[in-house]
Amino acid sequence: MRRVLLTLIPAAALCGCNMAPVYVRPSAPVPARWPQGTPYVASSTAEKAGLPWTLLIGDPKLKTVIERALSDNRDLRVALANVLSARAQYRIQRAAQLPAVTGEAGSSIARQNGVVRDSYSGNVGFSAFEIDLFGRLKNLSEAALQTYLASEEGARSTRIALVAETANAYATLAADQELLAVARETLASTEHSLALIRSLNRAGLTDKLDVHQAETTAEQARSDVASGMAQLAQDRNALDLLVGAPVESTLLPQSLQGLADTVARVPAGLSSDVLLQRPDVLQAEHQLKAANADIGAARAAMFPRISLTAAIGAASSALSSLFSGGAFAWSAAPSASVPVFGGSARGNLDYSKAQRDRYLAQYELAIQTAFREVSDALARAGTIDEQLGAQRRLVVASQRAFALSQERYRAGIDTFLNSLVNQRAFYSAQRSAIATQLKQVQNRLTLYRVIGADF
């Protein structure tokens, strides 16, 4: 046994060798600060970038819906299962660095020529344990660890995206409810006007052209009502899929404006360094680190691989004397192998280097994409309030124009066409205002997602 230990000591002393390249985080290929200027929202140095979703969302109904989605959404469950799978793979790979000790015991009884012979044995040992002289197993374990950490960041990214998508689907449902309500109001108004014009036509006070023009507006509104009802049903289906179960009617939004008032503005800060902590960027970096470790494993595979099989135990013809006297025995069988000609070692090393370059490009692209997404969201955030204010004033102006044109038509001093044009403008302005309000809510949700700092 002493000789076995003497064999392991120098081998263990060499196990600190690591042939992987030293990892240095690449410089971020984006400006250090967010874009500044007229279209962008102004940021304060005192602002901490990002916001937890529990502070982002103030509506209690929407909070309940999001909590259910985080519990029951199947995409998130898949991501969490991937994390558990990657963690198990890391544990398997990590175990290869340690000897797997096994114990065995056996006995046999044989009768030959009237003589009974007994045999008993017991031993403990390990088989083909690789002594990691050049860090091959260590780097394979490191690659598995980084893959596991990448899967964790992937799950965190899925979680943030799920919060934003659920809230976005909820806001879209609220907007489509209001669009349907506007279409129904317009349909009721046009049907009233159509009935009036038909009665005037029968009395000879107006011609058929006015009737047909009124019919076009009524049918367009009727078509929009049918389309809106279908869209509303599809919105419910999309929300149910995100949540993972049907959402009760009591949890649905009451109004888009009321929902918009409860969604907070997400600060972006001044520095773009926050992107380095975005889950998908961290995921790309862990994948780069794993590729870096794979290079070390591929390099080590080109050097001798030494393994050891050892055992200690006892054998005796009597169970009572199994662990006494000369019954003990031990054995050690070291072996080594090294590639001489041919093989795939050089190709594996070249492949690992190419993969490292690939993941480096993906990491840099992830940062650039994140910077572009935040910059776009900041540009929208800097102008959306002004756009929404203009749309609301347009609704008021077009409503007044429509009302005045109706009065002028009834007084006989204006044509029905002018009234019809103003009615369509009012209808369009209402729809545009709702769409702009939705964009405002979506912009805040987008900033939450693209900054990715849900702490």
| Cα radius of gyration in angstroms | 37 Å
Largest β sheet strand count, sense and barrel closure? 4 strands, antiparallel
CATH fold name, please?
Outer membrane efflux proteins (OEP)
Strand percentage lies at 5-15%
Strands side by side in the biggest sheet: 1-2-3-4
Q: Say how many strands there are.
A: 4
Shape: elongated
CATH class reads: Mainly Alpha
Would you identify the CATH architecture? Up-down Bundle
Q: Which sequence of SSEs, written as H and E, runs from N to C? A: HHHHEEHHHHEEHH
Give the full name of the CATH homologous superfamily: Outer membrane efflux proteins (OEP)
The parts where pLDDT drops under 50 for at least 5 residues are: 1-9
- Helix count equals 10
Number of domains: 1
Report how far apart the termini are: 55 Å
**Percent in helix:** 55-70%
Mean pLDDT: 86
Helix vs. strand class? alpha+beta
What does this protein look like?
The protein has 455 residues and is of the alpha+beta class. It has a single domain (23-97, 135-303, 349-451), classed as Outer membrane efflux proteins (OEP) (Up-down Bundle). The chain is built from 10 helices and 4 strands. The chain has a 4-stranded antiparallel beta sheet, with helices on one face. A hairpin with a 2-residue loop joins strand 1 (101-112) and strand 2 (115-131). Helix 5 (136-202) packs antiparallel against helix 6, helix 6 (208-243) packs parallel to helix 10 and helix 8 packs antiparallel against helix 9 (345-410). The longest helix is centred in the middle third of the chain and has 67 residues, at 136-202. Residues 1-9 have low confidence and may be disordered.
